[in-house]
Amino acid sequence: MNRDLTADEIERYADDEVDPAEAGEMEQHLLQCSRCASAVLRIVQMKRAVRDAMSEEGAPAALRGRVRRQIGPSKAPSAWWLLAAAVVVAVVAAMIVPPPRPSPALPELVDMHTTLLASANPVDVVSTDRHTVKPWFEGKLPFTVPVPDLSPTPFRLIGGRVVYWRGNPGAYLLIGKGAHRLSLFIFRDDMAPRDLAGGPLPMTTNVWRSRGLTFIAVAQVPPEDVRQLRAALESSR
């Protein structure tokens, strides 16, 4: 793709509404074009912010109770008083922002996947050789990174880096299949995100645990491709 993505293409990519062939071309372009990659990231973050805001509750029950007590009982409240009370409730409720709930981890990891692919250097060690990538992680993480042998599969290792999720270190492997790029995050179980429930996401994800480690695969590919990657990883262990 020798041109910038249009606004419609950026929107469709962020919503995962492009076919696999088109998505592959777009991913290749995003790896080389920081402007389009930043635009995709802004859309993804905006949608996530809207999703989080939609889940917030209204005015707390304690606030409604305080307003009722201040209004006090009345046998025949006037329309003006009822209107004033309603305005007070609305204004005070708007001023009180409830504490943010812990957000699910998968949307954050999807954002991290998009950010890494949009960066000029998504990995710190670039190699298709597992015997180069695996030793690179030694001493950088509190666990041994199981870098798989992907030679007998349609996947290929591109490289890796250390990532942090809320201060907890983990390994990141960038894996290719054709023109597609798949992210594999690996954390030690006691440092892994806890809330990894599924939900509507703009990417395909797959989560599994094995030998004290948590694996999270993220990619804009059909679910079967991610399942195939998981099977390849598990068989190479």
Distance between the termini: 37 Å
SS-based structural class? alpha+beta
CATH class of the largest domain: Alpha Beta
Report low-confidence residues grouped into runs of 5 or more.
80-102
The arrangement of helices and strands along the chain is HHHHHHEHEEEEEH
Number of domains: 2
**Topology-level CATH name of the largest domain:** Phosphorylase Kinase, domain 1
Cα-based radius of gyration, to the nearest Å? 24 Å
What does the overall shape look like?
Answer: globular
CATH architecture field of the largest domain: 2-Layer Sandwich
Task: Give a short overview.
The chain contains eight helices and six strands; from the N terminus they run ααααααβαβββββα. The protein has about 240 residues and is of the alpha+beta class.
Can you give a write-up of this model?
With 237 residues, this protein is an alpha+beta fold. The protein folds into two domains: 40 residues, no CATH class; 132 residues, MucB/RseB, C-terminal domain (Phosphorylase Kinase, domain 1). It contains eight helices and six strands; from the N terminus they run ααααααβαβββββα. Strands 1-2-3-4-6-5 form a six-stranded antiparallel sheet, sandwiched between helices. Strand 5 and strand 6 form a beta hairpin. Helix 2 crosses helix 3, helix 3 packs antiparallel against helix 6 and helix 4 packs antiparallel against helix 5. The radius of gyration is 24 Å and the shape is globular. It starts with 6 loop residues before the first helix and ends with a helix. The relative contact order is 0.13. About 10% of the residues have low confidence.
